[in-house]
Design a protein that fits this description.
The protein is of the alpha+beta class and 91 residues long. The protein has helices at 13-17, 25-46, 49-53, and strands at 60-64, 68-72. It has one domain. A hairpin with a 3-residue loop joins strand 1 (60-64) and strand 2 (68-72).
């Protein structure tokens, strides 16, 4: 409480609703900043969080028209990737 008798308005509504979170305000701010940073990166690279969530439709193993198998992987910073396949030839 402030010296005016009113509670301090916090920038995070969750802390206003639950004052027991007040000691963790700096942690909540840090996590929100990290979330917003990641969200900004996703929106810049993918267009939106929704587009990113649908990346399964074009990442990984995909069977394309003409039974062509395409593999696409997101691996920033990777020096190399290997694909090991085990298959059974059926004649």
């Amino acid at each position: 409480m402030t010296n005016t008798g009113m509670t301090k308005k916090n920038q995070f509504e969750v802390i206003n609703q639950d004052p027991y979170l007040q000691p963790f305000e700096s942690n909540i701010k840090y996590r929100m900043d990290k979330f917003n940073e990641l969200l900004s990166t996703l929106e810049k690279n993918e267009g939106s969080l929704l587009n990113f969530s649908r990346s399964y439709t074009h990442m990984g193993l995909q069977i394309k028209e003409g039974n062509i198998i395409e593999y696409k992987e997101y691996a920033p910073g990777a020096l190399s990737l290997s694909i090991v396949l085990k298959y059974k030839l059926i004649l």
